[in-house]
Amino acid sequence: MKIAVCVKRVPDSETRVKIASDGKSLDETGVKFILNPYDEFAVEEALRRKEQAGSGEVVVVSLGPAAAQETIRTALAMGADRGVLLEADRVPVDGLEVAKALAAELKNGGYDLILFGKMAIDDYNHQVGPMVAELLDLPCVTAVAHLDIAGQRGTAEREIEGGVETVEFPLPAVLTTDKGLNEPRYPALKGIMAAKKKPLELKRAALGAGGLEVLGLTPPPQRKDGKVVGEGPAAVPELLRLLREEAKVL
Amino acid sequence: MSDVLAVAEQRDGVLRKVSSEVVTGARRLADALAVRVDALVVAASPVQGADQLGGFGADKVITLTNPAFGRYAPEGYARVIADRARAGGYRAVLFAASAGGRDLAPRVAARLGVALAQDITDLAFEGGAVTVIHPVYAGKALLKLKLTATPAVVSLRPNVFTPVQRPKAGTAETVPVEAAAGRVVVTGTKAAAGALDVAEASIVISGGRGLKEPANFKVLEALAAAFGGRAAVGASRAVVDAGWRPHADQVGQTGKTVSPTLYIAVGISGAIQHLAGMRTSKVIVAINKDKDAPIFKVADYGVVGDLFEVVPRLTEEIKKLHG
Ligand SMILES: Cc1cc2nc3c(=O)[nH]c(=O)nc-3n(C[C@H](O)[C@H](O)[C@H](O)COP(=O)(O)OP(=O)(O)OC[C@H]3O[C@@H](n4cnc5c(N)ncnc54)[C@H](O)[C@@H]3O)c2cc1C
């Protein structure tokens, strides 16, 4: 099993969002960056598949700034074999540009599986995985929450509104992973030490201009100051009156 | 021609509610551009309710049929939609950011070789371009984007674009299309017990660790029932991780993003990752015994108190209202 896992360096979700002076981006001072939580499911799945197969290679690929080497090292510490960083000063807002650069890197890699998280928790884009699949003309299942692979065929389950969809596909394939697929392992100290010596190749990402232009990044509109209607069940009639007459939602 | 294409969504031959939202969003854009709206349905055979899309602003409803399209067929759907988008020379192509739409839109955008703005909460035509608002960083910031490529491909967050009924009815046509067998095949769908999904319900009542044990969720289910089929019961991650509720019900960063008309958070503290999934709700009510719980900072209306006393009373009053 040769598996590629594409990972992204993202701000921790606890981050206080401060907008940079350009009014278009995040002020990164003091921001803690982590491996995108959905990508952890992808790394874990790749490691388990390789372990089950008894042989193979797990290659971690990231597109991002030089600091994304740390993100790759986290995945290497979990047990991946080697990393590739497609270096870019900034990750393009246009997911198709990211997908093109990744597809070019993955194209002749001979991978049985190419895994992604279903989305990144910074841009909520839900798109790079299936776009890479289209560019490489590979079958693709997104938001996989359960996976069985037997030989060259896979069966996946994905959540849809009010239910679960079962999907069959042949390998090689591109999958994006959802919560529920597995419990990602924590890197052990031994893994962290070993990760430092694992190969990590740096390349410059080839990126086009893309089709999205950022006009601005703003805080969400302040929700109107809420009010505490009252305490205990006695507050319920007044709550209902407000919902009916003021909010007009009942 | 540079009209707007609204891709509708059906399941089991029945049109889904998000479709009217997508057509409503498309109509808004088309009005700004002074162009027409085509609604596109992909299905095995003509779909129940498709004609109603005219009532939301579709000038024409086009149904592309193929026997293989009874269930979602990612590759087949992507191909026929991309072909149609190209042939029609559309200015914009709109999807729903539903589980299906989020899967389909990137495939179509990649085939068309254009950018995709996924899960948007607003759109406009300004200065000669389509612009959108897309929440980022767990909803803590809004990104305003200009789509410079044509067509502008976007997907609309469910429940945000309130469907607007219009008197005018559109025309309809059914076009059989060819489809090669896809490699990716949906072989079945299992419906979850709750039926109404939190991402689609107009009222969501979510419970957190304050419920104390799984059986107590019946308190919330009774309240949901009192709303008469419009409400779904959601959950915080704490109770999903504890195995009290299925992941499908989880609201938040690692669960679903919901935008109901009314969101009632019961025994939920209001962690930032939970807020990520519900802060675009129209009206938020919080019921929590801790007056300092962060949930009160985003709630429009708060009741400080024991949920086991407050919720049953609320259920009683709602029943009266509906009874
Ligand atoms: C990467 C990451 C992703 C995450 N994703 C999500 C996500 O998608 N969704 C999510 O919800 N969380 C998510 N979390 C977890 C989040 O940080 C919180 O831990 C979680 O939301 C807390 O759940 P809770 O509010 O139910 O529990 P608690 O924080 O324990 O709050 C329980 C609340 O119930 C109140 N209460 C107790 N008893 C009563 C009573 N009798 N009557 C009234 N009120 C009462 C308490 O005052 C308290 O405010 C994520 C965390 C991380 C790190």
Helix content of chain B: 25-40%
Overall spatial form of chain B: globular
Q: Which CATH architecture of the largest domain in chain B?
A: 3-Layer(aba) Sandwich
In terms of per-residue confidence, which ranges of chain B show pLDDT below 50 for 5 or more consecutive residues? none
Quickly name the level 1 CATH class of the largest domain in chain B: Alpha Beta
Largest sheet of chain B: 7 strands, parallel
Account of the 3D structure:
The complex is a heterodimer of chains A (250) and B (323). The longest helix of chain A is centred in the first third of the chain and has 17 residues, at 37-53. Chain A is 28% helix and 32% strand. Chain A has two domains: 2-204, HUPs (Rossmann fold, 3-Layer(aba) Sandwich); 220-250, no CATH class. Chain A has a nine-stranded mixed beta sheet, with helices on both faces. Chain A has a two-stranded antiparallel sheet with strand order 2-3. Chain A is built from six helices and 13 strands. Chain B has two domains: 4-176, Rossmann fold (3-Layer(aba) Sandwich), CATH 3.40.50.620; 203-321, TPP-binding domain (Rossmann fold). Chain B has helices at 18-33, 74-88, 99-112, 217-226, 237-241, 272-275, 295-298, 307-322, and strands at residues 4-7, 10-11, 14-15, 37-43, 60-65, 92-96, 116-120, 122-126, 129-136, 141-147, 152-156, 171-176, 185-191, 203-207, 231-235, 262-266, 283-288, 301-304. A seven-stranded parallel beta sheet of chain B has the order 7-11-6-1-4-5-12, with helices on both faces. Chain B has a five-stranded parallel beta sheet with strand order 15-14-16-17-18. A three-stranded antiparallel beta sheet of chain B has the order 8-9-10. The site of flavin-adenine dinucleotide has 27 residues of chain B, from α5, α6 and α8.
